[in-house]
Each structure stands twice: as C-alpha cells, then as structure tokens.
Design a protein that fits this description.
Radius of gyration: 19 Å
Shape: elongated
Structural class: mainly alpha
Number of strands: 0
Helix content: over 70%
Oligomer: single chain
Strand content: under 5%
Largest sheet: none
Distance between the termini: 44 Å
Number of helices: 7
C-alpha cells in the first residue's frame, strides 16, 4: 500500500472510531433521559458502570491520532483533520459524561413523582441528539453548511433551557418542599444545554478544518 493510500485508510479508521464514540455518547444520553422518565434506578446504575467505554474510546482515538502524526507527518489540511478529530473526541467524551450526570440525578430523585411535565426536557434532548448526529456528519463530509445548521439549532436548545428553568423556579415558589427534586431537574437541563454546547464546539472545529482558521461563531 502506497503512503497516500495508507493515510486515507488510517483517516477512515479514525473517522470510524469517532463515529463509534459519537454513537455511544448519543445512545448514553438517550438512555439517561429514558431512565429519568421511567425512574429506573437499576438502569441508571448501568449507565454509571458503562461510562468507562467512552474513556477507552477517547484514549484509543488520542493514541491512534498521535501515532498517525508520528508515522505519516501530515501537513496542511491532513494535519488539521487529525487535530480536529482529537478535539471532537474530547467533546464527545464530555457528552458521555453528561449522560452519567443525568443518571446520577435520576438516582437522587428516586421514585418521586416528577414535578411538572418532562416534555420540555425530552424536547431538549431530542434537539441535542440531532445536533450530535449532524455535527459528526459535518465533520465526516467536511460540510460547513451542516456545521452552521448545528449552531442555529443550539439557539432552540437554549430557548427550551430558559423556559424549563423558569417553570421549575415557579414551581419551587409554591412548593418549596420539592426543592431537592427541582434542583436535580435543573441540573439535568443544564447537562443537556452543555451537551448541546459541545456539539457547537464540534461545528466550530469543522469550520477550522475547512477554512483553516478558528471561528468562535456561537459566542
């Protein structure tokens, strides 16, 4: 296999590893929300136990990327592809951590009836999940239009976040005895909002990959 073909083969392998980590993070986030909705403590504990997989995948991507740089000595856009992959892996690993945090909030809430509706939290997750998938497509296809769509979608998640927090604060005013659960649900909203922020980091990395300069578009 000639050098260039080997590099393309290795880059495809790197993209596959990122896709695997992205799917794991997204699935973990979905599982954590379903666990919260169903108050399934056993399943929440399983999410905690499975967290090491994200860490292992993250380390594999880092090691593979470093080896690829050392062996192939890429320059220009090829080097940016590897650097961006490392950055994206860090964002995906963090998203997986948020799934663990949501599972911990589920355990702390326990079997209590949820205050208010879970619909907006579910909607926040659905938009965030779409953003994760689209941001990875943007990277794999080096598509700045898809990356820009991810940034636009973040505004929707931010809006749901603001609405839900205001509703929880209103409930707390009339039912202060529910402060513990309201606090945990507020954390869940924050974790989803931060997960969406990490997808915007991925989108911004795509702009860097394609354009060759850093853009902080969503700040």
């Amino acid at each position: 296999m000639v050098v260039r073909e080997k590099f393309h083969y290795d880059m495809n392998e790197l993209r596959n590893k990122l896709t695997e980590l992205g799917k794991f993070a997204n699935d973990a986030l979905r599982c954590s929300i379903e666990t919260l909705e169903s108050k399934n403590i056993d399943r929440a504990l399983e999410i905690l136990d499975n967290d090491t997989k994200a860490d292992v995948l993250y380390e594999e991507i880092n090691d593979f990327s470093i080896l690829l740089i050392a062996k192939q000595q890429p320059v220009a856009i090829d080097l940016r592809r590897i650097i961006v992959a490392i950055k994206i892996a860090a964002d995906l690993e963090r998203i997986a951590d948020f799934a663990v945090n949501i599972a911990k909030s589920t355990i702390r809430i326990g079997k209590e009836e949820h205050v208010g509706s879970m619909a907006q939290i579910r909607e926040m997750f659905e938009r965030t999940s779409e953003m994760i998938e689209l941001s990875l497509e943007a990277f794999n296809e080096e598509d700045v239009d898809k990356a820009h769509t991810v940034l636009d979608m973040d505004d929707v998640v931010d809006s749901f976040y603001g609405q839900t927090i205001r509703q929880l604060l209103q409930i707390n005013q009339s039912r202060p005895e529910l402060l513990s659960q309201i606090t945990q649900l507020s954390f869940v909203c924050r974790y989803l909002e931060r997960a969406a922020d990490h997808t915007t980091n991925i989108a911004e990395s795509v702009f860097y990959l394609v354009k060759g300069k850093h853009y902080e578009i969503n700040n």
